[in-house]
Amino acid sequence: MTEVPVHRGSRRKKYMNEDRILCVSNAYEKKYYLGEAFRGLPQAVKDELQVACTIFTEHVGGVLWLSFDDDENLYLHTMADDADITYDEIGAGLMIKQFQKEKRELLESLERYWNEWVNA
Questions:
Q1: pTM of the full predicted structure?
Q2: CB 3.0-4.6 Å disulfide test: which of 7, 45, 67, 76 passes with 11?
Q3: Percent of the chain, pLDDT > 70?
Q4: What is the mean pLDDT of residues 75-91?
Q5: Is the backbone of residue 113 left (phi > 0), alpha (psi -120 to 50) or beta?
Q6: Quick one: how many helices (H) and strands (E) in the chain?
Q7: Which residues span the domain enclosing 28?
Q8: Within 10 A of 107 (CB to CB), how many other CB atoms are there?
């Protein structure tokens, strides 16, 4: 697991590779998306991930997505629209660190799943 990039506006594009996205939680649209490659995860894992990501975006706003980089590491990304004055960049960074600490076992198991099943 690697540290979180925090973005504003269109800079997020270079980190978005559809095939490598685990999930996305969007506070603006009140939507959650689970990547196709992860539909086979146990329901309890999918539920835990959805709840954690949705709570995250409810607290700090913006968009949170989890994806894998070219080195097969799981990244947690957060961003907000440039016009969003309610988005808390500092809070987002702190909450990502808390998320990584509290969900360490889940995130490590998702990295293993990606490397052993999806990207094998």
A1: 0.83
A2: 7
A3: 85
A4: 89
A5: alpha
A6: 3, 5
A7: 6-118
A8: 20
**Does the structure show a pLDDT above 70 at 1?**
no
Q: Which residues contact 60 (CB under 8 A, 6 or more apart)?
A: 27, 78, 87, 88, 91, 92, 95
State whether residue 45 is helix, strand or coil: helix
Angle ∠(4,71,60) on CA atoms, nearest 5: 15
* Sole residue written with tokens 């146990």: 42
* Tokens 């309610």 belong to residue: 86
Q: Mean pLDDT over residues 77-101, rounded?
A: 90
Distance CA 30, CA 79 (A): 15
φ, ψ for residue 5, nearest 5 deg: -85, 135
Has residue 1 been placed in a domain? Answer: no
